[in-house]
Structures are given as structure tokens and as C-alpha cells.
Amino acid sequence: MPPTSPRPDQPSTAVADSGPVTYRALLANHEFAGLYVSFTATTAASTLSGYTLGTLVHAQTSSPLLTALSMYAGTLATVLGALTLMSIADTARPRRVLLALQALSLASVAAQAVPSLPLPARFGLLLITGFFASLGTGARLGLLSEVVPARRYALARSLMNITSGGTAVIGFTAAAFLLRFLDPGRGFLISAALVGAGLLATAVSVREHSVRLTRRPGLARTWATNVALMRRADQRVLLVNLWVPNGLIVGCEALFVSYDSTHAGLLLAAGAGGMLAGDLTVGRFLTAPQRARWALGLRVLLAAPFLAFALHPPLVVGVVAVFFASVGYAATLPLQEKLLAVTEQEVRGQVQGVESAGRMTWQGLGAGIAGVLAQGFSPAIAIAVAAGLSLLITFGTAGRVRWLRNGKSQVTG
Questions:
Q1: Ramachandran category for residue 21: left, alpha or beta (phi over 0 → left; psi -120 to 50 → alpha)
Q2: The pTM is what?
Q3: How far is CA 193 from the centre of its chain?
Q4: For residue 211, what are the contacts with CB-CB under 8 A and spacing of at least 6?
Q5: How far, in Å, CA of 83 to CA of 351, rounded?
Q6: b vs e for 356-393, b when ≥16 Cβ sit within 10 Å of the residue's Cβ?
Q7: Tens digits of per-residue pLDDT, 158-175?
């Protein structure tokens, strides 16, 4: 029987809001360490299964669009979670919800290992996995905001982003190597085992927390909070900048297999390495005001180097360009930090889940947009066009984000 939440007079088990702000101090918190291990295992599983499916679909169809969608179509289903049941992140027992969703994800990933499974069935499983993942993210981030004090939230997200980047570097490299010797079915089984490890880490380390909202979860509650969220101008502009520019650049990355199937793993690993370096630098060594000042430059850096792919650069130039561009993903940290600051405590789980789900959904949309462009032109041209669109969105909203950063925009409408 899981432990229950403490009475109001009992002390919190969150990391004390005192002392040095370091990664080691974060990991000393048993609950955060469990969430961190669970997140790492889940990320590794997603990396391996995504690359495995992308390689399988490319070999069967040779279609840039289908290959791109096979790697990121699951993210499209996250919007379904955001629009329907995301309120469970705040209106149900978070530990219980997270364990149930991880178990469902385990089943859907394991089902991909069935031999000769038709492609429509594989895409259906992708959507199911994405739906469960979006709800799980909301529950996990809701727990994170409770076990980590506010002043350490950016550092905690930074550590998780760094780990995501490092895990992806290892995962893409390992997947490219393993698939030379293993059939895709075994790759999916390894992914399922990693999801199972994440479930176990949650079960043994995370205690049950109180429900932040006592109202019944469901479609009506989810919609009510989402409508209130999108009516606020400050939150809207933050969400646009968290979702759209990143999603279009993920669309660029989704074309790597079609652009150069031999070296796609190297390009993807370079991107993951750049993301790791950016999150480490921005999350660990910059103060909150410095992160806010660098946010625009990082969003520009995220897209600009991909313009070079229109010229079919040598492999080493492409790898370097992808690495430095991916440093720009760290722009999400100051934006997430600001979103947390303007969100009420009782709905932070749902709002953070919506932010994550929207970002993941736009990764799928970005892959679809880039795939359609590649079908009509070429993967190289499609990468450059998607990067150009990302820059247009960034510059088009820069004034509003700067206004918000200076504290002049908190109005609704």
C-alpha cells in the first residue's frame, strides 16, 4: 500500500529551500531521484523505439514523409491528452496516475515487437503511446513542482533536459549500432524493458501526494482550465514560443534519415549533444535574469544553422551545424521558468502538461510539415525552409516576449 500524503503539520520531503543550488543537492532528494531515473529510462526507451521504427519504415517504404512521421507521429497524440484528460495531473492521486500510465505505455511499446505487424497498426500504437505519455508528463511535472522548491525548478528541468540530451546521444548511437545486428523486434523489446525500469523506479521512490484540486477530473475540468490558460495573453505568447519554433526544428531532424540514411544516427547524436551542452550551460551557469536575456539569441541559434543544409554541406559541416543549432533548445528553460511563475499553484500540473503536450504535438506537426516539403522538393530544401519558418515565428513574437520579460504584460484577452 503506497504511503499517503502528510498532514498539513508534517514537514515536506522536498529539498529544503536553502543551501547551495546544485545538481547533487537535487539528487539527494529521494523522490526527485526517483522521478529523474524514471524520466531517464523513459527517454532512453523513446529514443531507441523511435529510431527503430524510423529505420523499419524507411526500409519498407522509402518515403520521407512516412519515415518522419514514424519517428514523431506519436507526439501528435499528446494534444489529445491535453484536450481531454490532462486535468488528472491535478485532480487525481499523482503517484497512482503516473504508475498506471507507465504500465499502459509499457504494454503499447511491447506490442510493437510483434513480428510482421502492419504499418497502420504500428502508427496506431504510436498514437496510443503518445496519448499515455502526455498524461504521464503532466503527472510527473506536477509532482516535480511539489518535490522541488520554486527556486530550484529551473535547475531541475535543466538536469532533466541535459539527461534527455545525453541519453539521446547514447541512444541514437546505440540504436544505429544495435540495428546492424538485431532485428527491429528485439529493439522494441529492449525499449519495453526500459519503460519497465522507469515504472519500477517510480514505484519504489515516489510517495503519494495530496490532490491539488478536489474536483472530479475529466473533459469539462480539462477544457475549463485550458480555456482559462489560452485567454491569458502572457501565457499564450510563452506557449507559442515554446511550441512552434522548436517543433519546426524537430521537423528538420525528422528528415535526417531521408537526407542521409547512412549517417543519420551521427546527425541525431550531434543534435542531442548540442542540446545537452546548451541545457548544462544555461541551466547550471546562468542566473535567471541572464537566462531571460539570452532567450531570443538562443531561439535564433536554434534555427539559423539549419539554413546551410540547402547547400548540401559536407558531413562534418552538417554535424557541427546541428550541434550548435541544438544548443538553442535551451531557450525553453527561461520560457518554462516564466510560465511557472505566471501559473497558479493548484493547476501547475495541468498547465505544465499542456505545455509539454503542445511542444510534443508541434514536434509531430513539424515532422509532418517537413515531410510534406521533402516529398515535393528534397529533404535538404525542406530542412532549410522549415528552419526559415522557425526564424519567422521567433522574430515575429520577439517584441511580445521582451515586453512580457520586462513585466509589462500580464493582461488577459
A1: beta
A2: 0.62
A3: 21
A4: 90, 91, 92, 93, 94
A5: 11
A6: bbbbbbbbbbbbbbbbebbbeebbbebbbbbbebbbeb
A7: 788 777 767 777 777 788
Sequence-ordered list of residues with C-beta below 8 angstroms from that of 309, at least 6 positions apart, any chain: 252, 259, 318, 321, 380, 383, 384, 387
CB of 81 closer than 8 Å to CB of 167 = no
Burial class (CB in 10 A: 0-12, 13-18, 19+), 44: buried
Choose among 131, 162, 195: nearest CA to 361: 131
Beta strands in 174-250 (DSSP E): none
Virtual torsion, Cα 304, 307, 312, 318, nearest 10 deg: 20
Helix or strand or coil: residue 115?
coil
* CA dist., res. 335 & res. 295, Å (int): 8
Per the DSSP assignment, residues forming a β-bridge with 412 are: 232
Q: Which of 410, 327, 345, 347 is nearest to 86 (CA)?
A: 347
At residue 412, the 3 state secondary structure works out as strand
Dump pLDDT digits (tens) for 32-77. Answer: 888 888 888 888 888 888 888 888 888 888 888 888 778 776 666 6
CA atoms of 249 and 204, how far apart (whole Å) = 37
Nearest residue to 367 via CA among 248, 244, 272: 248
Instruction: Please name the residues in contact with 365: beta carbons below 8 A apart, sequence gap of 6 or more.
Output: 76, 247, 251
Sequence-ordered list of residues with C-beta below 8 angstroms from that of 7, at least 6 positions apart, any chain:
none
φ, ψ for residue 232 (rounded to 5)? -90, 120
Q: Which cell goes with 315?
A: 558531413
Amino acid (one-letter) located at 361: T
Task: Kindly report the number of other CB atoms within 10 A of residue 162's CB atom.
Answer: 22
Residue 177 neighbours by CB under 8 Å, 6+ apart: none
Under 8 Å CB-to-CB from 271, ≥6 apart: which residues? 168, 253, 322, 323, 325, 326
